[in-house]
């Protein structure tokens, strides 16, 4: 080929590549974090899951109202307290064109739950998300059975977190290849992963349509979907305002007005699943006295802070559970804002001149903690805010029974499944991972343990209602609020709904 | 410089790297915070699950043993798996490095191209309005927080004027088959002028933000050394001989005045490479700096260790380069 012809050929190719792209519809998401890996079995990161969940489907999924519905499964039944049976949907294809079989389902779960199941000596870090799941048996070419070591009513709630992979594909590319390649059954195929910059996906035309319970069923609306990684909030907002992206997550409350006032953009919110609270160190002489803990609780005007600092985008809580959670105790009487009672309680506890305490917080919530500190100080609890870095504060507060050193810790715990187990046990069970207060109540432990294996749904809900009342009466924490997840959207974006589990499902998203 | 000196200088790298690996290893390990705890966050895990994860990451062994394993593997070029990406850290770093180098080079070019003429001009017109403005400007340039300046540029040029893109390295349409992974270079090599312009439009704001402090410093250095040189006897002599003033300034004075500028620039390039995490975060630039900061917060030990060693090598080599440049430009100086 002559040089001239080569150039001509190159520009012709360039033209033919760029033309259809110009006409294609495309939804662009400005997202806080890149995926750690594209292997659904090899991470413990929610942002990673949010991204890859658009390319992989699960046996079950959640609709935007957080109901659990079948996705790759057609239906499921509980045969006994320890056996669940799933019927697989017919005609589902992987991106490489091969059909999804029950062998793939068994393979996926073996890879997740077996010691060394990743094939390179490693065990999947997601193993413990599947609790006592012991094995998956193939019954026939449309049926699989899940066998549990012990009754575990959480299984359906935890299955939307696991994505199905292709046995032959994993065997071909290995766990190493799974980190950067995708062969799922989801609505989008991977085009390119520019690490740290963006993940570019295109519509999978052979998609089976998604969960029958989530309308509209069918192929994805847009030709291409892109996650563009913009970690800095101000830049993410700028990208939305400039029209570079159609949707951003984690819109800071102070930017809401700016986004709403812009003619092309709007704000969408959904109740989140993360409870915020203040842990009071019950190993500390001061906070051993319940009157002091009550005094702290009475001193905080939650509604004021929700209004002024969170822009009204949060709902206050009187127990650990989110108002949308299963088993939430709706009758719980909160501790009302009453600084005079605080002072009285402090005096009764032997501190007529008030107390001096420190409130630990991570940098992201410094403002909120300072507002809380000023309220506390007004009620005689003179509070200094100490900003620390997350990892460091966790090793100080989440000691699992080891000694704790601080006074108070402004922190939070997320609960993507909205099942109480995910938040109640870690934060309230004696010496558990998230029990920053160092709280211990044997009666509560017994209730929490009983709830894990209780298969009767009504009874289980009743146990949690009782547990929440019991814990609230002991005041180990000041339960604050559940903030809403705030998204900025372009007005060109249609059909997309936010989800409480902070998943960004682009299947139904359309762009004008 | 003799080859012997060269080898000697390169051998200096060994104690530096040994020292840096000990320090970075200890600092990471002694910093409170547990990678497993951070990885699990607030999801469910059993004690066995946690122990298995710790074992997989090699964190169940005592610190000393871990250090020797790290050193032993590092000597063979194996820096381990990134805890979170579950891939060799070398691969993860290699993916991000070209973006950082490209950004640093463009920032360097911008800095040199603006600082030298401005510095010379300020020196020639000493005490003029221009000189005073330049002094104030360079003071601002050094002291403006990169974060703030970056956001300001972004709001002005991207959001209000719609001239430049907000973040990232290149538009999604401008896919170019990589050769060097430097997009500006690759797009030219592939004859894709559209992609070149696209990549250029993405790199301008971050490069200006990143290069601003360096521009300011280099301008000051150039101005000062230009003034210094202009006071020298040979310049006075040349002037007395009645030589053309521009010829004196640009042939005789500038050549000598640039010696400190060049060596400062070479040393500062190290800080461009290492100091761009803020710029990379503001502009969503997929570079190494952002990756390292994220990794520090996540206690991703293997990645931070490898990256810090890389930075150390780069610094040492750049300093070395600065020395060589100095001797080349000024033959009277010996190393």
From TrEMBL, chain A:
GO terms for biological process: peptide transport. GO terms for cellular component: ATP-binding cassette (ABC) transporter complex; outer membrane-bounded periplasmic space. It is found in: Periplasm. Keywords: Signal, Transport. Residues 67-430 form the Solute-binding protein family domain. Pfam families: SBP_bac_5. The keyword Transport applies. Residues 1-24 form the signal peptide. GO terms for molecular function: peptide transmembrane transporter activity. Belongs to the bacterial solute-binding protein 5 family. This is ABC transporter substrate-binding protein. It comes from Oricola thermophila.
UniProtKB/TrEMBL annotation, chain B:
It is a multi-pass membrane protein. The chain crosses the membrane at residues 12-30, 104-124, 136-157, 199-221, 308-329. It comes from the Bacteria. One of its GO terms (cellular component) is plasma membrane. Residues 97-322 form the ABC transmembrane type-1 domain. GO terms for biological process: transmembrane transport. It is found in: Cell membrane. Belongs to the binding-protein-dependent transport system permease family. This is ABC transporter permease. It comes from Oricola thermophila.
């Amino acid at each position: 080929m002559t040089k001239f012809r080569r150039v001509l050929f190159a520009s012709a190719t360039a033209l033919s590549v760029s033309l259809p792209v110009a006409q294609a519809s495309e939804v662009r998401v400005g997202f806080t974090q890149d995926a750690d890996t594209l292997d659904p079995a090899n991470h413990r990161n929610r942002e990673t899951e949010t991204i890859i969940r658009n390319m992989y489907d699960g046996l079950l999924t959640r609709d935007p109202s957080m109901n659990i519905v079948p996705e790759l499964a057609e239906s499921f039944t509980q045969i006994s307290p320890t056996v669940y049976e799933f019927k697989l949907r017919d005609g589902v294809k992987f991106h490489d064109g091969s059909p999804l079989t029950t062998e793939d389902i068994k393979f996926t779960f073996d890879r997740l739950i077996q010691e060394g199941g990743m094939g390179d000596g490693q065990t999947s870090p997601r193993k413990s998300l599947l609790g006592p799941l012991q094995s998956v048996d193939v019954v026939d070419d449309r049926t699989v059975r899940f066998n549990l070591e012990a009754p575990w009513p959480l299984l359906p709630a935890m299955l939307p977190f696991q994505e199905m992979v292709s046995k032959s594909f994993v065997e071909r590319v290995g766990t190493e290849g799974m980190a950067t390649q995708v062969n799922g059954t989801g609505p989008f195929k991977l085009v390119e992963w520019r690490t740290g910059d963006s993940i570019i996906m295109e519509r999978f035309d052979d998609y089976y349509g998604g969960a029958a319970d989530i309308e509209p069923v069918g192929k994805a609306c847009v030709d291409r979907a892109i996650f563009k990684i913009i970690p800095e909030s101000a830049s993410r907002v700028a990208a939305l305002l400039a029209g570079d992206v159609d949707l951003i997550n984690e819109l800071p409350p102070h930017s809401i007005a700016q986004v709403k006032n812009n003619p092309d953009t709007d704000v969408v919110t959904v109740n989140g699943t993360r409870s915020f609270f203040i842990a009071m160190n019950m190993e500390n002489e001061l906070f051993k006295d319940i009157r002091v803990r009550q005094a702290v609780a009475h001193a905080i005007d939650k509604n004021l802070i929700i209004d002024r600092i969170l822009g009204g985008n949060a709902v206050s809580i009187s127990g650990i559970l989110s108002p949308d959670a299963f088993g939430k105790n709706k009758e719980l009487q909160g501790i009302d804002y009453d600084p005079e009672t605080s002072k009285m309680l402090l005096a009764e506890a032997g501190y007529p001149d008030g107390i001096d305490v420190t409130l630990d917080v991570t940098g992201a919530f410094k403002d909120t903690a300072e507002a809380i500190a000023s309220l506390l100080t007004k009620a005689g609890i003179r509070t200094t805010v100490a900003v620390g870095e997350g990892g460091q504060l966790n090793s100080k507060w989440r000691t699992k029974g080891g000694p704790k050193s601080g006074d108070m810790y402004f922190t939070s715990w997320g609960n993507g499944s909205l099942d109480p187990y995910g938040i109640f046990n870690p934060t309230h069970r004696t010496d558990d991972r998230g029990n920053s207060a160092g709280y211990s109540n044997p009666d509560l432990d017994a209730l929490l343990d009983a709830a894990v294996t209780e298969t009767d749904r009504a009874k289980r809900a009743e146990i949690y209602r009782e547990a929440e009342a019991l814990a609230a009466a002991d005041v180990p924490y000041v339960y604050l609020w559940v903030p809403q997840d705030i998204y900025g959207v372009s007005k060109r974006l249609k059909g997309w709904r936010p989800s409480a589990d902070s998943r960004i499902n682009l299947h139904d998203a359309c762009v004008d | 410089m003799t080859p012997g000196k060269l080898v000697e200088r390169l051998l200096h790298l060994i104690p530096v790297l040994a020292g840096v690996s000990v320090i970075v290893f200890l600092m990471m390990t002694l910093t409170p915070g547990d990678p497993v705890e951070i990885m699990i966050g607030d999801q469910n895990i059993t004690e066995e699950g946690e122990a298995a994860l710790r074992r997989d990451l090699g964190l169940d062994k005592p610190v000393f043993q871990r250090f020797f394993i790290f050193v032993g593997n590092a000597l063979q070029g194996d820096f381990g798996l990134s805890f979170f990406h579950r891939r060799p850290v070398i691969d993860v770093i290699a993916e991000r490095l070209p973006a950082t180098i490209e950004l640093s080079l463009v920032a360097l070019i911008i800095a040199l191209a603006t600082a030298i003429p401005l510095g010379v001009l300020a020196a020639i017109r000493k005490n003029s309005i221009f000189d005073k403005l330049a002094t104030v400007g360079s003071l601002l340039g050094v002291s403006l927080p990169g974060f703030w300046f970056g956001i300001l540029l972004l709001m002005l040029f991207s959001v209000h004027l719609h001239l430049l893109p907000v973040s990232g390295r290149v538009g999604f349409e401008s896919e170019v088959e990589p050769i060097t992974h430097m997009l500006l270079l690759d797009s030219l090599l592939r004859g894709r002028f559209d992609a070149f312009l696209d990549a250029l439009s993405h790199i301008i704001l971050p490069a200006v933000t990143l290069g601003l402090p360096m521009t300011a410093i280099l301008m000051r250095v150039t101005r000062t050394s230009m003034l210094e040189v202009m006071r020298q006897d040979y310049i006075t002599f040349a002037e007395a001989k009645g030589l053309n003033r521009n010829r004196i300034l640009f042939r005789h004075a500038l050549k000598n005045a640039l010696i400190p500028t060049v060596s400062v620039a070479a040393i500062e390039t190290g800080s461009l490479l290492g100091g761009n995490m803020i710029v990379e975060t503001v502009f969503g630039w997929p570079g190494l700096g952002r990756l390292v900061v994220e990794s520090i917060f996540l206690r991703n030990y293997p990645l931070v260790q490898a990256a810090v060693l890389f930075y150390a090598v780069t610094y040492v080599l750049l300093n070395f380069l600065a020395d060589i440049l100095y001797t080349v430009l000024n033959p009277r100086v010996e190393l």
